[in-house]
Every structure is written in C-alpha cells, then in structure tokens.
Amino acid sequence: MDETLRQTAVAGSFYPGSRRELERQLYTLVPEETAHHDLLACISPHAGYVYSGGVAGRLFAHLTVPRRVIILGPNHTGAGSQVAVAPQEGWITPLGEQPVDSEFAQTLVDAYPKAELDPRAHWREHSIEVQLPFLMRRRPDLEILPVVLKHLSLEECLELGRVLAELIVEIEEPVGIVASSDMSHYQPDDVARTLDHLAIDAALERDPGGLYATVHREGITMCGVVPATVALAAANLLGAVDAHLVAYATSGDVSGDFSAVVGYAGVCIHR
Predict the structure, then answer these.
(1) Which of 59, 107, 130, 191 could cross-link 187 (Cys pair, CB 3.0–4.6 Å)?
(2) Phi, psi torsion values for 65, nearest 5 degrees
(3) What CATH number does the domain containing 11 carry?
(4) How far is CA 266 from CA 43, 98, 217, in A?
C-alpha cells in the first residue's frame, strides 16, 4: 500500500463508492444556487449521506469555497495522537485524488506543540472523509489540511484556534475552516432538537467558550464540539461578524423513527 496516499474508509457505505453514483447523489444533495458567503468557517455534519447529506449539501451550496481548506474532525476511533495532522500527500476519493496541503501541515506541527504528523487517527476516521466530495464539487482545485482532534480543554481549543488564525493571516490567501460534527446522538427527537438548539445558539453567538460549556453542562452528545470550538475561536480572530443556521434536521426526518435520533446542523460563520 502507498503510505503517501490515504485510502477511503467509508466509501460505499456512508456515501457511494463509484464516481458516477457519487456525482449523481451530489447533484441531488447540493442545490444549484448562488453562494451567499465566502467560507470563513462552518460546522458541517458527517453521517451517511442518506441522513445528513441534505443538510451538508445545503450548507456547501451556500458557500464559496476557497482553494485551501482546513478540515477539523473529531476522533471516533481513539487511535493516534491528540492533534493528528494528516501526513499524506493526498487522499483517495471516488472523485479522484484530493491533494493535501503538506506545507501547511508541517507549519502547523511546528507552531502547535500538541500537533503531530500522525496517520493513525485518519486510517478509519470518517468525519473528515465525508466532507471531501461536497468540497470537491464546490472547488475542483481544492487543497486540504485534515486534522483529527481528541478531547481538548477549552484553553487548548482557544490556543489551537489562535495558532490557526495566525498561520492563516501569514498565508495572505483565503483559507476556510470546516468543523465536522453531528449533534445529539440517540435521543428522542424532541429532546435532541431542544438540546441541539442550545448548542446551536451558542455557535450563532460566535462564543467558543459558551458552546464548549453548554455542551458539557447539558450533556449534549455533540461529537465535534472540540473542532467546532476551535473553528469559532479562529474565525473570531479572523474577523467573523455573524453566524447563521443554514439547515437543521434529524435522522428521524429520513427514517420516520423519532424515538432515538441523531441531529445534524449546518452553520455558517462569516465576515
């Protein structure tokens, strides 16, 4: 196996494994509409496309995607380092090979002590992989920086956000940040919606500390709270002035089973 390339982990299960079928699904999921905002930062869901693809598609249709995008995902597998930066040169997708911004990857590792070039957290992790087809559809010449995060304290989240913001300013080129996260997991639909909107409200206030505190205080099973907190912290330092909810749904909207759902939110944070 070529270790310079990251192979797909969930193609054929979370989303179609063939180029033709994936392009067909993206055509139905991503509305043909004029983008309203440049991608500064956003929170996007990462479940199977049948469940969360509609929310993600509406979010990315809403955004103009820059050439360089940092994707922050939560660590579902427990493998690898605390802040695992993808060391590969590219990621394989059904749409073709997606280049990794290796120079930025090394710069982040040099600038943030907890960051390591570590492939282990990425091997079976789906939270970043499922974002790629949407981003590639919106920006064919995309370069990505995938970073998988384990649990970080609020202070560590804010520091990582500060480092990312400073590095982005130095680049002197637009860089977007995607925080990959689903919302409540396996709650009754009405409970999930109530809890999720507590977290969403904090995100809409562009309050990283408020989001982090709300999720932990209320026991909200938002798997990507750390990526979202980091993204909000960075966006604020990069001049964010507003945020809004583009789309929200639960798995019950698709399955018809509202007894135990997962929530999905698409949030845009912009200048």
Answers:
(1) 191
(2) -95, 125
(3) 3.40.830.10
(4) 6, 23, 22
Report the half-sphere exposure of 269 (CA within 13 A, side-chain side).
32
Beta bridge pairs of residue 92: 97
Backbone angles phi, psi at 161, to 5 degrees: -60, -40
SS3 for 97? strand
Determine the residue type at 235: A
- In which residue ranges of the chain is pLDDT below 50? 1
Which residues constitute the domain of residue 221? 5-270
pLDDT given at position 1: 45
- As for how many domains the chain has, the answer is 1
- DSSP symbol at 13: T
> Are 227 and 211 within 8 A, CB to CB?
no
How far apart (Å, rounded) are the C-alpha atoms in residues 3 and 20?
A: 26
DSSP secondary structure code for residue 100 in this structure? B
Residue 96, exposed/middle/buried by CB under 10 A (0-12, 13-18, 19+)? exposed
Outline where DSSP puts E strands in 134-174.
143-149
Tokens 């964010």 locate to: 240
Query: Torsion angle of alpha carbons 75, 202, 46, 140, nearest 10°?
Result: -110
Q: Of 254, 31, 7, 269, nearest to 132 (Cα)?
A: 7
Residues 258, 192: contact at Cβ < 8 Å?
Answer: no
Q: For residue 37, what are the β-bridge partners?
A: 63
- The tokens describing 222, both together, are 């938002």
- 192 with 261: CB under 8 angstroms? yes
